[in-house]
Amino acid sequence: MIKTMRMRVVIAVVAVLGAGAAGAAETISKDLTSTIALLGLPCGQVVSSQRLGENDYLATCKDKNSYRVYVNAQGRVVAEKR
Asked: What are the residue ranges spanned by the domains of the chain?
């Protein structure tokens, strides 16, 4: 069950991180919100995000928490508190 959920998160994040359309900002915020929640971290809602690199984002939450969300070398989605 957990492996299936993790795989879905990885697929969603990779799809979002690869998106480059102008209207993708809202989608990226929603997907980052979901990813952070699935990783069990407090956030509430992502209110802004900044692309740091390929598969690498800085997300700022409504509750003032900030996370770096990226895909690590092992292919796992990681969120580090900043």
From this structure: 2-81
